[in-house]
Design brief:
With about 260 residues, this protein is α+β, with helices and mostly antiparallel strands. It is built from 6 helices and 15 strands. It has a single domain (about 5-255), classed as q2cbj1_9rhob like domain (Jelly Rolls, Sandwich), CATH 2.60.120.
C-alpha cells in the first residue's frame, strides 16, 4: 500500500509556495502531458543514439548532460555549458512541432509565477534544462538529495529553495515509485553523498510518502530532502526532468538540469 502525504493536485503559485514552506509534501498533477504523446516521446528517448549512462549510477541512463556530472571539474563545466543550447534543441527536435513536456512546463511556470521564470545561469553561462532519463528494469538508485550549492561548492546561486520536477513518460507495470523521506540529510549523510552519490538505504527509516505516478503525470517535490526511486519491474521508467530554484516570492524562479 502506498503511503500518502499532503499532496497538491494543481500547479499554481500558491501550491509552489506551500511546497517551499513544507506545508505540502509534493505537487502531483495527473495527466499533465497527454499519454499518447508521452509514449511517443519515451520511445524516441529510449532509441536515441546519444542516450548514455551516468558516470556513477550506471544503471541510470540519460539524454542531456546534467550539472551533477560536472562534479567541480572545469573541463566538464565548459562542456556542460557549451552543449546546453544544442541539447535543448536536440531534445525539442525529437517531437517537433509538438511541444515537449519540458517546454510546456517552462511556459506554465513563466505564466503562473508572479515574477516569471527563466533559465538558470552559472558564472554568466546559461544552463541546460530537460534531462531525459531511462531506468531499465532492476536499476537501483541510492536515496539522496540534490542541492546546487553542493554541486557548485558554494552558495553563489543564492537559492533559498530547490525543487525537482519529473514528468513521467513511461512507467513500468510495477516499481518506479517516488519515495520521500521529508527530511534533510545529516551532515554525515551529506558528506557520504560526495563520494558515494547517495545514502545507504539500510541506515534510513522507511520513507514517509510513496507516490506512484501514471504516464503523463507531473510531480514536483523538494529536492533538498532525501528521496529515491524504487527499482522498475517488468518494464522501463522514462522521465523528463529538471530542477527549479527559488529565491523568494519577489524573484523569478529558475530552472536547469
Amino acid at each position: 500500500m502506498l503511503k500518502t502525504g499532503e499532496i497538491a493536485r494543481d500547479l499554481t503559485a500558491e501550491s509552489i509556495r506551500k511546497l517551499i514552506a513544507r506545508a505540502v509534501d509534493a505537487i502531483h498533477v495527473p495527466g499533465f502531458y497527454p499519454a499518447e504523446l508521452s509514449a511517443r516521446f519515451a520511445d524516441a528517448i529510449a532509441a536515441h543514439s546519444e542516450l548514455e549512462a551516468y558516470e556513477i549510477q550506471s544503471s541510470l541512463k540519460r539524454l542531456g548532460m546534467g550539472y551533477v556530472d560536472v562534479a567541480g571539474r572545469a573541463e566538464k563545466a565548459e562542456q556542460y555549458h557549451s552543449e546546453a543550447m544544442r541539447s535543448i534543441w536536440g531534445i525539442r527536435d525529437m517531437i517537433y512541432p509538438t511541444l515537449t513536456p519540458i517546454d510546456h512546463f517552462r511556459l506554465l511556470l513563466e505564466e503562473i509565477w508572479p515574477a516569471g521564470a527563466t533559465l538558470q545561469t552559472i558564472k554568466g553561462n546559461k544552463s541546460f534544462v530537460g534531462t531525459c532519463r531511462v531506468i531499465e528494469p532492476g536499476g537501483v538508485m541510492l536515496p539522496h538529495n540534490d542541492r546546487l550549492a553542493r554541486m557548485l561548492g558554494d552558495d553563489s546561486a543564492g537559492l533559498t529553495g530547490q525543487m525537482a520536477m519529473n514528468i513521467y513518460l513511461d512507467m513500468p507495470p510495477a516499481g518506479g515509485e517516488l519515495e520521500l523521506w521529508l527530511r534533510e540529510p545529516t551532515p554525515e549523510e551529506d558528506a557520504v553523498q560526495v563520494t558515494d552519490d547517495g545514502i545507504a538505504r539500510e541506515g534510513l527509516d522507511e520513507p514517509r510518502v510513496v507516490i506512484r505516478p501514471g504516464n503523463g503525470d507531473l510531480v514536483l517535490f523538494n529536492s533538498q530532502l532525501i528521496h529515491c526511486v524504487t527499482p522498475a519491474v517488468g518494464g522501463r521508467r522514462v522521465t523528463a526532468s529538471c530542477f527549479v530554484g527559488y529565491r523568494g516570492d519577489a524573484a523569478p524562479l529558475t530552472y536547469w538540469s
